[in-house]
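Researcher: Here's a chain I'd like modeled. Treat it as a single chain, no partners, no ligands.
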Amino acid sequence: MAALQQKKNLIISGILFGSVLLISLLFYGFYLNNRIRVMLFFPDFRTGKLVPEERYIVNRKSKDLDLKEFMDELLLGSSRPHRTALLPRETHLILAYEENKKAIIKLSYHFLNEDKEIPVDFYSIVQSIVNNILFNFISIKEVEFYIEGEKLPMVNLKDQRIYINKFDFSLLQ
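Model: Modeled as a single isolated chain. Structure tokens:
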């Protein structure tokens, strides 16, 4: 009788353990399927070089919404010590979307303000944003910036990828 009760308890324990494991795996799978891994690059204030930071953003199943969330993450800046923000702190995103393999990024006028905490020049900031976008969104081939509705006149930023597999942006050294 005692042996039968032990087997019953073992079976019930196994079923409970299996159920908890299955629920955990389903939750974990759902959570991971709704996330996209992105690499963001921020300047190290000691060297001025861009260093990578891995983040996960919600997969919105829309490139426009993914791009907007990606830009929001860039605006937040780094979460690690010894790294600075890539954009001036007051800058906010007005709009970000993709159109014909081109990312359209509309920022507030604060983007033009000089920030002493950012160890790189304005052109390097713009090129860094472009490189961040091109690295994470392979279908995008060009990036256009607008500041408060006015197109930012820049040198051609079309597909000027500075490959960052080695995390080395030559223009930031």
